[in-house]
Design brief:
263 residues; alpha+beta; Tetrahydropterin Synthase, Chain A; 3-stranded antiparallel sheet; 8 helices; 8 strands; 54% helix
Amino acid sequence: MAQTVSLGILFLVFILGIYFFSISIYVLKEYERGVLFRLGRLNPLRGPGLVIIIPIIDKLIRVSLRTVAIEVPAQDIVTKDNVSAKVSAVIYFKVFSPDLSITQIEDYQYATSQMSQTTLRSVLGQSNLDELLSKRDELNSTLQHIIDEQTEPWGVKVTHVEVKNLDLPENMQRAIARQAEAEREKRAKIIHADGEDLAATKLLAAAKKIRTEPIALQLRYLQTLVEVATEGNSTILAPLPIPLDLLEPFRKLMTKMADEPEQ
């Protein structure tokens, strides 16, 4: 009977030894660090690699140093020009000080998410709708800078913030579409007017050149007939060109007759 009890005690001691040995050994990966508390006091960081602690006395908390991406839920905002919209974003951050992320904040991921939502509503609410649509990079940089300043005491570094979606009411979408259409029509009319002005300038320059050489007008006329003929027209109606050289003798004769005195 005593031998059976001794074997049971030895077996229990063996099991407890295996248990304490298993909880005293940690293997931390390259991107992990261990925050060690010994009797409640913070000790130097552990890892990466094999880490051995004293059971019951020590407590080790793993902290990942990899970049984390979290999505900021859609937030209802009112822009500076009184336009209601829903805006969502994505934030990228990582822990640069594991001991601060454990000792200064209870849950740094949840706190960073809440801080991002508050900052998103505050910053975008101070911007106009045109700025939200056209100055996205500047707003992203401003958001990243503000959130990073607020999370730095927690040992968290915000590396990038990207505004993901901007949802507008249907009536505002239609108004923006009409505005864009009107802007395109305005640019088309301006381009057309510039083209007319340039064409008139070129025609004036061409007329001045043709004026110095009358035969150039006849050559241009013949070239126009050739271009029309290549289009496959069956009938071409065109005025008969009268060279100016043929009219010159008649003009001289009329001038001579007008200068002669009546007999």
